[in-house]
Write a structure and sequence with these properties.
Glutaredoxin; 23 helices; alpha+beta; single chain; about 650 residues
């Protein structure tokens, strides 16, 4: 079974502290290897204002310029662009996939001014990364840089990279099959990969993705704004060079000429003098009698943790929780709640493995193994951990295969949505909300306050419920957002009863991977609630998804012939193969009138209708996909959709009394 990188990030649409930084965390600094070229001796430290104090924590200098030669690497964009972005990437890395739309956004925002260069860095934990890199390089060998980038885009858009997927991408790219097979099987382009990895490792860019913007390092799938700040600075410098007489084509070489060839470190900024104020938010979080708990059965402080075994931030908060346990012996109990996020493919299987271990009294032992091996989550690993924990192997396998823990996990997820724990990790300290992998000091402030409240009080079996009730009552009232009114046309694509108690307006994008993952939860809603729920589709093709608008127009052309939902299903089922030829093929398969279909594709009125949906999204404050408006309540992402529908159904039921 192919291993996948299992560190991931919190939901892109959320801005949770400690749970929304798209980047790879390198826990051990690799030994630097010799770079292909040697910089002058002072270059590696020239950007540092002074030598760091002995023992000081060091970080990359964000102003340092590194010597990153193009060296014949695949390039996209004009050779005389004033800014060159060198991307060191891995086709199987989820963060690299997450960064791809940002690169497209940069390309659109700076037409003709930015050149992109690719350096391979397939990580050893990604079994399909090297074969994918071989395919991309073979595409380049057969048909040049343009074909490399076409395959590059397809690889990063693919949800998995097994042999069948690679074969499909190769075939759709029009590559000769036999040379591709030879290149992959024989590691034909391995020297190019080794050369790239030697370079980026020497520069301290061993994680993926890493970028060099005119030589300045940016680590991780950072936001467009983070790149924009550096790009704008570098454009200003480049324009000054051109004004001084430099030819535009020489700007990059001159900029990196004296760049560093080893990591440039400076002292880390001093920590804030005081921890952030504790959150004022609170919610009633029930602890079931059969919840897995660590610590005393009765304690003045209870920390309920909503977590995900594949989430890197959840792994990062674990040492802090151990520190709390040691700092407050006998005073804190910890309760675990599952919240496997839908975009972490290994999170749910890991949760089920933990539940199977819980059934044999070994939840925390399995928990520790899963968290310690977040990069190696797999069915084989779960069986191995069960063996190491001396579990009844046959029972363990039966429980995992039979989804014995599924009901408990679903109950935890439902509670998470109700209390606003939609990202991970989210913790509740006596029902007071703490979001993200916060430092010990942030938790300490809340814990100390709760311990003071407990002084002189009877800490018994009902203490937690009483304390929670008091904290929830003391928390400032949450002002509900005003309902969002979205106009619905009579001919908008809709499924469900016309007199349904709840209407779900879905703003979506056919190229958005999160929208694709929302298809099944929406169908489950329709199945569960029948005619009580109506689902209405609205287009919101995002600008950095180049195939989203054409796909929306194709869906509209199908709608005019009564086949919107059938086209909808085909587009999402083939999200990695969106193209004009594909739309025509799907129209044939749906037995549409092809002449009419193609005429509708070209009709400006079809595009206008999609634009009207996008304008309706803007008026409702909807900017990302998928976003649902449930009887006026805005729900971002599909994870909290069902609880919102249930809330609105209950309101409708009470209103009918």
């Amino acid at each position: 079974m192919m291993k996948k990188l299992t560190i991931a990030l919190a939901l892109a649409v959320m801005a949770l502290a400690g749970a929304a930084v798209d980047r790879v965390i390198v826990t051990k600094q690799p030994t630097a290897v010799a770079a292909p070229q040697r910089a002058p001796a002072p270059a590696a430290v020239a950007a540092a204002p002074s030598a760091p104090a002995p023992g000081a924590a060091l970080v990359d200098d964000p102003k340092a310029v590194y010597r990153v030669p193009v060296d014949g690497s695949p390039a996209r964009g004009p050779s005389d662009a004033l800014v060159t972005i060198v991307e060191s990437s891995d086709f199987e890395c989820p963060f690299c996939k997450r960064a791809a739309p940002t690169m497209k956004q940069i390309e659109a925002a700076y037409p003709g001014r930015v050149r992109f260069v690719f350096k391979h860095n397939p990580l050893s934990m990604h079994r399909s990364a090297v074969p994918a890199a071989m395919l991309a390089e073979e595409a380049r060998a057969q048909q040049g840089d343009a074909k490399f980038w076409a395959v590059h885009d397809a690889l990063l858009a693919a949800p998995s990279l097994d042999a069948l997927v690679l074969e499909k991408i190769s075939r759709e790219a029009g590559l000769s099959a036999a040379p591709v097979k030879t290149a992959i099987d024989g590691s034909k382009h391995m020297e190019r990969l080794r050369q790239d990895q030697t370079l980026v490792n020497a520069l301290g860019a061993s994680g993926t993705p890493s970028f060099f913007v005119n030589g300045r390092k940016i680590v991780g799938a950072q936001s467009f704004e983070a790149f924009k700040a550096v790009i704008d600075e570098e454009l200003a410098k480049a324009e000054a060079l051109v004004k001084g007489g430099a030819a535009p084509r020489d700007v990059y070489a001159r900029t990196i000429e004296k760049g560093a060839t080893a990591p440039v470190r400076i002292a880390a900024p001093a920590p804030a003098a005081a921890p952030a104020a504790p959150s004022a938010q609170a919610a009633k979080v029930t602890v079931r009698p059969d919840d897995v708990v660590h610590g005393p059965a009765v304690a003045p402080v209870t920390i309920v943790l909503f977590s995900d075994f594949q989430c890197p931030f959840c792994g990062r908060v674990e040492p802090t929780l151990k520190q709390i346990d040691q700092a407050y012996p006998g005073k804190v109990r910890f309760a675990w709640k599952h919240q496997p996020l839908p975009f972490h493919p290994n999170a749910m299987p890991a949760a089920k493995a933990a539940e199977a271990a819980r059934a044999q009294g070994k939840f925390w032992e399995m928990h520790d193994k899963l968290m310690a091996n977040q990069q190696a989550l797999s069915d084989t690993a779960y069986s191995q951990y069960a063996k190491e924990l001396r579990l009844d192997a046959a029972r363990f396998q039966r429980d995992v295969a039979g989804d014995a823990g599924g009901k408990r996990i679903a109950e935890d997820q439902k509670l998470a949505a109700e209390v606003g724990a939609t990202g991970t990790p989210t913790l509740f300290v006596n029902c007071r909300k703490v979001v993200g992998a916060q430092p010990f000091e942030a938790f300490k402030a809340v814990i100390e306050e709760e311990l003071k409240k407990a002084d002189g009080k009877t800490v018994d079996a009902g203490f937690y419920d009483r304390t929670c009730a008091a904290n929830v009552a003391a928390a400032p009232a949450v002002v509900a957002a005003a309902p969002r009114d979205v106009a619905i046309r009579k001919d908008d694509p809709a499924r469900g009863g016309s007199r349904a108690a709840v209407t779900v307006v879905e703003f979506s994008d056919f190229q958005c991977p999160f929208c694709s993952r929302a298809v099944q939860p929406v169908k489950e809603l329709e199945s569960a609630f029948g005619s009580d729920v109506r689902v209405v589709w609205k287009h919101l093709p995002l600008s950095f998804h180049p195939n989203a608008m054409p796909a929306a127009i194709a869906a509209e052309a199908a709608r005019q012939q009564g086949k919107f939902w059938e086209m909808h299903d085909k587009l999402f089922a083939n999200q990695q193969a969106l193209s004009e030829a594909a739309y025509v093929q799907y129209a044939k398969e749906l037995k549409l009138d092809l002449a009419r279909f193609q005429a509708t594709l070209k009709d400006p009125a079809t595009r206008k209708r999609v634009d009207e949906d996008a304008a309706a999204a803007g008026a409702a404050g909807v900017t990302g996909t998928p976003t649902f408006v449930v009887n006026g309540e805005v729900v971002v992402g599909s994870n909290a959709l069902r609880p919102a529908v249930e809330r609105q159904l209950e309101k409708a039921r009470l209103a009918r009394r």
